Amino acid sequence: KKRIPGKKRNKKKYKFQEYLEKSVIANKTVIPITQECDVCNINYDIVYDLDKRLEDLSLVGRTVGLDFDKPRSIKKTPKQRRRSFYSQLSMDQLEKIADIFKTDFVLFGYKFEFYK
After folding, report:
1. Is 110 left (phi over 0), alpha (psi -120 to 50) or beta?
2. How far apart are alpha carbons 76 and 82 in whole angstroms?
3. Residue 60: what are its φ and ψ, rounded to 5°?
4. Strand ranges for the chain from DSSP E
5. Please, how many CA atoms are within 13 Å of residue 114, restricted to the half-sphere of its CB?
6. pLDDT tens digit sequence for 56-73
7. Nearest Cα residue to 83 out of 16, 14, 13
8. Quick check: pTM over 0.70?
9. C-alpha distance from residue 21 to each of 49, 57, 60, 78, 88 (Å)
10. Per residue in 33-43, pLDDT tens?
11. Using CA atoms, how far apart are residues 72 and 54, in angstroms rounded to an integer?
12. SS3 of 92, please?
């Protein structure tokens, strides 16, 4: 591998809790989607909830002219995966996240109780 002069690699891997504390809560380098773009003023043709069954995604693909391979089975659903990550957080951290992303929670139908 060719190394780029002057570029340092951060080999430290953060745990989910550390990432949220440093990047979201403290530094606010991750911001709500409602601040990132103007989602309410876009005329969408399709909106798909990725928490739904993966098999249903092929319907979206056909609608836009794509043919997806049959989805592989997954060990955990997206909801189960999120629960396992967010269960690592304290109630204080969860409340800070919910406060930062409160507009997204409302807009996208997230329920704070799910993350407790």
Report:
1. beta
2. 10
3. -60, -45
4. none
5. 12
6. 677 777 787 877 666 666
7. 16
8. no
9. 27, 33, 36, 22, 12
10. 888 877 777 88
11. 9
12. helix
